[in-house]
Every structure is written in C-alpha cells, then in structure tokens.
Batch of 2 targets.
Target 1
Amino acid sequence: MLWPAFSLTGALLLLTGVAYPALLYAVGRITMPWAAGGSLVRDHSGRVVGSAYIGQAFVSARYFHGRPSAVAYDAAGSGASNLGPTNPALADSIAHAGERFRATNGLASTTWLPSDAVTASASGLDPDISPETAALQIDRVTASRRTTTGAVTALVEAYTRRPVLGVIGEPRINVLRLNLALDSLDPVLPAR
Amino acid sequence: MTERGIAQDILFLLIVTALVRPSGTYLALVFTGGRTWLDPIARPVERALYRLARIDPERQMTWAEYATAFVVFGLAGTLVLYAILRVQAPLATPLTPDLAANTAISFSTTTTWQAYAGETTMRYATQLIGLAGQNFIAGAAGLAVGIAFIRGLAGDGVETIGNFWIDVVRAILWVLLPLSVAGGIALMGLGVPMNFDPFTHVTTLDGAAQTIAQGPVAALEFIKQLGTNGGGFFNANGAHPYENPSAVANLLEMLAIAVLPAALTYTFGRVTGHRRDGWVLYGVMVALFAAGLGAGHWAERHGTMEGKEVRFGIDGSVLTAVTTSNGATGSTNAADDSLTPLGGAVPLVNMLLGEIAFGGLGSGLFGIVIVAMLGLFLTGLMIGRTPQYLGKPLGGLEVRLIVLYTLVMPITVLPLTALALVTRAGLAGLTVNHGPHGLTEIWFAYTSAFANNGQAFSALNANTPFYNITTAVAMMAGRFGLGVIALALAGILARAPKRSAAGAVPTDTALFGVIIIGTALIVGALTYAAPLVLGPIVEHVRATS
C-alpha cells in the first residue's frame, strides 16, 4: 500500500502540479499574453496604470470614484469587511460612506444612494460600479473638467456593460476604463 | 430578487441538466474500461504510472482493501503537502506546524479551508505543486470512492468493488486533467492570469502607488471547482477579480462544480441498470438546490451590497453561495459573514443536510443514496417490511451503517462547536462579530470543515492552534469517517445477491423522491433545530424587531 500511495502521489503531483501549469502557461503566453499577464492597462502616454480587473482608489474630483474598500485597494492583498449584518459597526460604516459620498458629489441629504456606493466589496478590489452610482457622480466630474454633461453622460453610457444574453450578471461600469476614456476626451489635465 | 436573477438560475440549471446524460455516460465508460476518444493519449501514461507504482491493473479489491488504499493515499498526500509547506523556507516564510498541518489536511480532504491568505503566504511553486496538484489528487480520490460505491450497488454476489489506484489514475487522466486544460484555457480567455511575474507595482491613474498580486492563477482556478475543493489563490477567493473576472466566468466555474456530481446520478443509473432511479436522485438534487435558491433570494431581498461584487450583484452572489455550499466547494464570490442572518443560514443548512444537492465529487452521490436508504428504512418501519433498494435488502448491519453515517456529522460538529463556545481559546476567534452571529460563525466553521467545504464566515480568526487542530479533526472525520462507512456499505451490498423487486417500495417514482427530501429535512431539523434558533434565527428576529 505504501509504495503505490507515495509513488502515485509523487508522479501525479508532477503531472498536475508541474506539467499541467506549464502547458497552460505556454498556451497563455502564446495565444493570449495580455490576459495571461494580468490584463495590465496603459494610459495615453503608454505608462502602465493598473489592471483592467483590479479596482483602484480614485480621490480626485475629475475622476469617477469606485466603491469603499476594506483593504483600501491594496491589491497585494484582498478581502471583505466581514462585518455581520447586525453588527453596529456595519451600520456606522454605511452611514459614514453615505455622508462622504453625498459631500463629495454635492448631493442633498435626501438623495437616494445605490447600495454599491456605500458598501465595501467582497474582494476589496471591485473594479466596477453600478450605472446608478456613476450617474450620481456625473455633475461633479463634469464640473472639474472642460467638457459638457452631455459628453460625460454619453461616455458613461458607452462604458456601461450589460448582462450577457440579458441574464448573466449585472449592468456595470469599469471605473478605471471609464476614467481613462475621460482623460482621452479631455486630455489637458487641470493643475493639481 | 429580480427576474434577471431567476432567469440566470434557470439557465444554470438547464445547462447542468443538459450535460447530465452525456457526462454521466462518459464517466460510466471511463470507469468500466470502455473506449473513449482520449485513449490514444491517456493509455500510455496510464500504463507508465502502473509500472512505476507497481500496480496490477487486473487486481480487484475488497471494500476493506479499497478503504485502506483510500485512507493511506489521503495520508500520503497530507504528509507530502505538509513537507512542502514546512520547507518553503528559506525562499519564503514557512508555515507554523499547526497551520501547515491544518492546511495539508485541508487540501488532502478537498476541504481547502484556508486559515491563511494565499497571496501573502504561499509561493507560486507551493500554490502549484502543493495546492493545485493536491486539488487533482484529492478530487480524484473522492470521485473514486463515489464510483466504488456505485459498483457496490451494481454488484451481484461479488466480493470486490474495483481497484482504488486504477480509479484514481483514470479519474485524473480521463476526467479532471483534460477538463482542466479546456477550462483553464477558457478562464484565461475570460481574464484569469497565468504568469510567474513578481507582483506588479504601478502608479495608478490618480497618482497613488498600487501593488498588484497575480501569478499562475488559472492553473488552480478550474481544478479547484472541478475537484470540488474550492481553496482560493487569493484571500478573497471567488470574489477576487483575477479568480472570477466576470459573471460569465462565474457561471463557468459554477458549472465546473455542479456538472460532474450531477452526472454521477446518470452514471449510477446506467451502471446499476436502474436509470429511472438515477433520474429520481437527480430530481431530488434539483428540488433541494432550487429550494436553497428560493430561500437565499428571499432572505437577501433586502440585503445590501456589503461583501458583494458589482459584476455578480446580489442574485449572482446567492446563486454562487447555493452552488458552492451544496457542492462542497468553498469558492464563494461574496462574503458569507455579511449576508443577512437568514441568507447566511442558507449555505449553512445546505452543508448540514449533507451536501446532497449535486454535492462533492463522489461524496454527493453516496450521500444522497444513503439518505434514500434511510428513507426506505423509515418507511419500512411504518409499513412493516424489510427495506430493499435496487434489489438489495437493507438488513440490520446495513441499517446500522446508514445510521452511523448519519450520526457522524452531528457527533463531530456539535461537540466541537460547544467546546469552542465554552473555552477562551474558542471565543478568542470572535474578533469582529459577537452575539448570535458569533455563534453562527463558529458553528459554520466546524460544519464547513466537516462537510469538506471550506467556505467560512471569515471574520472568525481561525489561524490559532485551537482552531487549526479542531477544524482539522472535523475535516478528517468528514472525509475518512464518511468515506470508509460508505465503502463498507458498498462492500456489504455487493456481496448480497440481487433479489426480485416484487413487493418492495418502488424507488423509481416521484413519490420516492418526496420521501428522500422529507427524510433529509426531518433528520436535519431534528438534529440542528436548537443551534439554528440560537444563531441565525435569533439574529434575524433581533434585526427585524
């Protein structure tokens, strides 16, 4: 029993833990190097500014902002707040995030806020926001740029991804891609 | 709950259902030595492995030999992985002995409970040779036990139930490896990285510094679902955008969990010659799965996006919670801890019912058959007849094994939970949430460990010697305790000659499906009502009053 158990374990580990990853690596490298390499995206000057799939922190008024993050968008790690539904800390955190979102975007205290705007995601690295969360930021972003509300709204519309086949997933907007598109639309950045 | 969410659920179940017959037929061919199109590639590798391991492919095993090989193989995998985790040094920090032992047992039992964060703890080589490799091996061993169990029910007065080594090798070469090649490539196309680059340092668009962990994720991602393991490359597991980049990727990963366990019902029907019985089992699985979805959507109708990702939404998070908790796979795409009190109870209940809606690879099949047998025993008591399943009488010895199988979970999980609740070391795990939610958090941990699932209410600080040791005990009991009992039952049933079904309770009808569901729910409710009330239900009442 012992020899078959250990020799098979060793041989199968080589097959599945070395040969299999090597095959996938080669296929990825040759046929889809961008995706296999982590889908890194560049700005108009060619500088790598992040990954298409990994959310990042935006604080400037001229950019759309992502969701609150339990790991402050530090992509060397990942995680959720794990606050229980009846934990008072969760209600506090949602209330604070709501105040912050309203203050940042100049919204009345009665404005209804979408859930994703005031809650931390599961990964802490959510790259997306809902179309509703984007819509509430359009006026603030437009005011910080030399462009029109109509142009920004059209861009948000263009970057909204719909559920596949109408049923798989949710409508969403990739914040980094939207902001990169904004920068192309209005390339001369205002002085910081 | 939206119409789109329901439509997504239905689409998922339709795809699973469409794949049951072709996949089940293929599995039957692979494990009965039939011809398949992979033979030209896989046969030479198979022969080489038998030569190396000195395995006689003609030799058949009794249930006791089969069970011994299953346990010894599991321990060999555990020891090898323990060694790998301990000698990560000097290249990376080695894991502490208790964490290394917990992790080694966790992966060799397909639990893949993770008391560590992958991206900050594991080297790429460890993730691949140690963890991804173990996902294949342990997944294959689970499938082998399921296949041997089917042979036991199909056997007609025979002493043997197959050869464990052959079943493991064929499970990898014909099933897990080819599917993982296809699935891994598909996932890369959908955005899952596969590289050996160091973490990428970038300056973000808004001028901040960001370090992006990545690595050979695709090589782990598909097999972790297919082998019903579930341990993530990253701490956030299935919620991490690199592991699960879109709702389409998520659907593919959920199919990888559900299709093979679902297809085993067809394999079961085909190999035993009772196809309608196989479909009854599948029908029960779908009904229980749909009930979980309904409860989850209802409970989360006022849920928030806390601990959820925009691309999946609340509905996609519920679908994944239900699939992973029924499928013995911990790769949730949302934080269980932040679900509503009853929403969080849904995955807990799915695990407590024994993960029989599709279930773990291999274990789901024998799990549901044993519930069916228990149902036959109970109805037999009511009508005063000796229960009989597929022409096999269930006598005193068989029923004792069935009852023992049913009791292993409560007598492991409940005392361990109680122990944690009355000791300082146990309560020290509650650092974020307290009160009834804390009770649920601890109970969920032992349930998940025993069910070889691995998902968690992650606020529990489980990387302590207390939790590393106690959850490891639960994992071993759930894997080897249940596996050995199932094999013993299979061996005893194989020995019995088949009888005519005259006068027996018919088991190929919808009515029998209802009996199976009733048995599962009644036994579950009688066993776990008290902690369910003290944990999730009290929290729900407090939240709504």
Target 2
Amino acid sequence: MFVAIGLFSVDRMGGMAMWWVNQHTQDTSGPKIKYLVNDVHEDVLLMGTSRCNLHYVPSIISDSLGLSVYNGGIDRSNNIYAHYLILHHVLAIHTPKVICLEVMTYDFTEEADPFNTVTFFAPYFGINEGADSIFRLAGKYWKYRVSHLYRFNAKAVSNIAGLVINKQKGEDHGYIPCPHPAHYPSSLEHSNTPEKVDRMKLEYIQKFINLCQAYKIKLVFMISPMYTAVDEHHYDVLKTIAQRNEIPFLDYHTQGLYLDHPEYFKDVEHLWDKGARLYSSIFASDLKRILER
Amino acid sequence: MLFNSIAFLLFFPIVCVLYYSIPSRQVKARNLLLLIASYYFYMNWEPAYALLLLTSTLVTYTASLGIGHFEEKQKKKACLISSIVLNLSILFMFKYYQFFSSNVDVVMQLLGMRIYFPEFNLLLPVGISFYTFQALGYSIDVYRGSTKVEHNFTRYALFVSFFPQLVAGPIERSNRLLPQFRQRHRFDYEAVMAGVRLMVWGYFMKLVLADRCGLYVDSIFNNVEKHNGGSFLVASLLFPFQIYGDFAGYSLIAIGVARVLGFQLMENFSRPYFASTIGEFWHRWHISLSTWFRDYVYIPLGGNRVGRLRNYFNLLVTFIVSGIWHGASWTFFCWGALHGMLLCVEKAFRISKTTYSGVEKLFHWAVTFVLVCFAWILFRANNLSEAVLVIKGIFTHLGTPKPETANFIAIGLALTLLLGKELAEEFKWPIRNIASESGLVRHIYLVLMIAYIILFGVLGGDQFIYFQF
C-alpha cells in the first residue's frame, strides 16, 4: 500500500516538476512546441520536421511576402501523424492564412514504428481531443492518462539539459541557424523510389488537408533540396494527393536544386545556415507567386 | 512475452494471485499452474515453438528414465548419447544449419565443386540454446549419478520450461531447481518485496542503462560506413554496458520473478567489470553458462589435469564452443577464440586475480577492461569485415564522435548509479547496511527507482539481446 500511494504521489509531483522544466527549458524543440500550443499568431506557418526547421528563414520569407511567418518545423517529428497532432493544437488558438507543409517520404511510406516521435508532444496530452486522437492511434492514450511522469519520458533528459544549455541562440521566429559543418557531403548518391506505401498515412494526409480546408487555410506542400539524386516519380504519391486537392506543390529535390553545391549542405538531408538563407529567398519568391495567383 | 512489455506486467500479477490462492500444501496444483503459465508465456512468441520445447522435454525425460532404469553402463550411455544427439540435432537445424551449409558451399566452390544443400527458412526459436542446455545438463547429471531421476513429468516439464528463466537463463542445474518444485512455498512478504526490488533494479539496468546505450551503439554499428573512429570508440565503450545492462538486467528480473514466487535462482553476474584478469571475468560473467561449459565441456575434455599444451587446447575449444553457442557467425567464433587465447596467455604467464594488489591490480583491471571491450567489438559487429572496419577506424581515423548530448547525460547518470551500487557491494561499504536494514529506505528506494525508470527509461518494448541466442 505504501508503495502504491508513494508511487502515485511521486508520479503526480514528478509530473508537476517536469511540467515546470518543460515550460522553462531552452532545448531545441521544447520552446517551439510551447509556442505552437500557446502563442502562435503568425499569418504563415511553416510545418515539418528538421528539414523544415533548418531550411526556412522566416525573416527572409516575411520580407518577401509582407506577412508574418513562423517556422514551426520540429526536429525528428518524423511524419504526418506529428504534423496532424500539432495542427490541432494550433487551430485551437489561431487560424493561419497559409500553412506550408514540408513533406517527405516518411509521410507516405511504411515504417517499423511510425508513431515513434509523437511522444515528443505528450506533455500537452489531455488538452486537445483532436491531438489526443493520435495518442490513441499510437496506443499511448491510457499510459499517458495513468502516469503524468510518463508524458515527459521522450524528452526528459533534453528538457532538463535545456535548463543549463541554451539551444535557442540566434532563434528567428522558430528558425535556429545551423552552424558551418565540419565537412560537406562527399558523394552524391541515388535514392531509390519508395515502394511500400502506408495507407493510413495517406488517410492522415487527407485529414490534414480537410482540416485546413475547413478552416479556409491556404495549404502548400514543398520539398526542399536534398543532396541525393532521385527519379522524377519519387514523390508521385504525394503529388497525386496534392493535385486531387488542388494544393500547390513545390518540389526542389526532384528538380535537383543545389546538387552542384554540396557546400550548402551539412549532411545529405539538411542545409546549413548559408544554404538555408539562399534557399529561403528562392522559396519566398515562388510562394509569393502562388499566393498572388 | 517480453519482461519489459505491458502484457507481462499484467500476466505476472495474475499468475502470482492464482499461485498464492492455491494452498501451499497443494504443491502439485501449483506446479501445474506454473507449467501452464510457462507454456502460455512461451507461446506468446510463436505457438509452434512450444512443440520444440515439449520435444526437448520429452526426449531428455525419457532418456533420463532409461538411464535410471538400465543397470548396464553401455545402455545408460546409449540413452545419454541419444538424448544429446537428438537435442543437439534440433539446435543444429534451427541455429547452425544455414551457417554450416553456406560455409561448406563457399569451401566447395573454392575447390571447384558445388554441393546443393536443401534450403529451410527456419526462424530461430526464442531461448532454444538455454532450455536445450538446461535439459541436457539434467541428462548428463543423471548419467553421472549427481542427480536423481525425476519420475514426475509435470515437475520435470516445469524444470525445463519455468518461465522466469526459460528464454535467457540463468541456466539452472537440476539438483538446485528440481528440489524446489517439491517444496512448499508460503507467502512471505519480505521475500516478495526482495524479489520486486531485484526486478526493479533489473528493469533499470535494461530500460535505462542498456537501452539508452543501445540507442547510440546501434546507430553506429548498424551504419559503420557512415561514422568515424571517434564514434566507433564511444560505441565500443558503451556496448559493454549495453550488453551487461541488457543481460544482467534480464537475469535480475528472472531471479526477482522467481523470488516473488518463492524460488531461488542462481546468481548469473557478479560485477564482471571489476575483474582484474580474463579468468576472473569469466567467474563473474554469465556464471550459469560458464560453469555449465566448465562442468560439461572443459572438465570432460580433461580440464587442467593434463599437460600444459593439452590444457591450452581444452581452454581454446571450450571458449570457441561458448562463442558459437551465442550464435552461428564467425564474429562469435572469433570472440570465443580471442577469450580462449587470452586465458591461455594468462595461464602461461601465471596471471591470476590473487597475484596482484594495489596499483598493480588497478593496472591489471584496466588492461582486462580494455581487452574485454575490444573483444566485445567482435561480438557486436554485424560481420567480421565490419569489425575490422571499426577496429581500424579507432586506430586510424579518430575524429569527433557523433554527439548525442541528452542521451550521454542519461547514460552518465545511469552509469553513476550502477557504479555506486557495485562499488558499495564490491568493497562492502557500510552504506549497504542502511539500505538493507531500514524498511522505509527500501520502500522509498523502490518508489523512486520506478519513477526514475518511467521518466528516463526507453519504454518501447525492445527485445533483450540474449533472446537471439
């Protein structure tokens, strides 16, 4: 009995302590998730994974569009389930005019554990039924319901480390510049066209689109540069969905942007700050053209 | 069913309640319950595997009855050999056939010939090496007369399939475990709580220490071509703790689960990284397996009661067999052979744990630790060429390791806890007494450890490494 009561008390008190840590941490993604859930108010919201986080400089895009822009890309958020979850939180407090979703192969291909990283958002469990539906899908709902401490499991160390190590230096509306890398990608490799499509992920892409349409949000899909060569049909699954829903699709990867500039990349999937700034200008002008149509 | 799964956390309390709701004098009913629970536990992986477990049980049970029945030594021997051959044939087919046929094929091709082996796509049944060795050990003990024949089939089947130690040991001896299935086990709150504490420490070692190390180690060893020597070095220093946390953690959970039910399983690890010689390491690491090989392979080969060269040969053979027991791969062969050779060197130079003290001992500890870590590279690498790549990388391209700050902090914290506990045990620090004598401290420890695991553990339900053996 002592152990049961003790465990319940420690779980609840530990949960409160970790909530405080989560709200005060300066780690990579904690402050951004907090902002998206509580404070986001910008006209244009960029969403996606680390490729979104590292590739889009809001001030450059904002100057070009004349609209406020926030980079809501979250490192390792992995796929459409996380984006759908975040979208629910955002829509609970604000309706952006435009959402630009950086898509990638993980958004439609089969993975061993597709819900792996939705755990990052567990500290905000229980405040939005739409967002919680993803936790149900991931089989985490009752675990989070029972244990408050467990909600912080995925990012506990990172959150605590973020109290002493500030990873938000140079932050610009969600964008955190990536410093000059030690070395650039050395060789250009060919990436095979994905074959195994996850039907449920496609369903959630459609749900994401439907939700944006219900709130009359202009949705744009984009794929930023990557230092790999791909076939022109690499993203056909996503392009078909975009076409069916009349969503503009900006694909810089298939068209090979920056394949002649490995010095813009920190690794095959990510640009560093220099590449990101150059790319943001190109993206901003293309986005402006789309929005002016 | 994995120990670190929700299914087990539901299964185990149900088994406990049912077990203790049967009066302790009804030993047979309790044994039957445990046998059903054990087969249910095992069949959660793949129901068909239970047939192999049953086959192994039936073969060793029948053979041992024969050994006990016949008076003539020749007939006894025939029973034993048939038991060994049948059991090892099953093990060979499921675990080694693929490796054997592909290697014979390579050799034949080099000689300009081809042998076409039939192909079987057999999945390795979980824990087959463990229960096969436990059952074989019983047959050999009966033959040697060091244990009595067990006539009660339920009791014997439970000995082979007892769920706490069925899939990854400790590999129990018949004269230790079988008698416990004849005893009454009354509910003892203190013993149950002691078992729970062992389980919780086991979960800590697996979920916090091993699985956190595993996040880094796997990312490096599964993509060796993408990393530098610095990352290889860090991964090679973390893997010893990953495998220790994983396997010792499993053993502790197994021992704890058995203790909750009133059974005592043998200690399987005794602070192995405090060893100051390779010989001592093997007295502390996977004790149930190393003593099994000592008793059933090394000593029958002649042990150390033979000439020096023959003794070295015996050591080498025992450790190569031990290596191959872990898996059908040249990496395990080389890992076993390396340990065998290091033991031969220690024998040749008469290096033993009692030879040194003070600074000298510290030096020998450091050398032993480095050698053990080096050997683990062979064990962990996906194949020999990748092992060479890792070793070469450490010595030639030592760059900045792949950073994982948050994970390193968590690993550092877990290692500090482990080191503190093991130092206190190894050097018998008085702080141990506070923990063992105060009930309040024990309960607070339990609560805080569970909370710590919930917060910092990798709770994705990963397999234990030793399940593949």
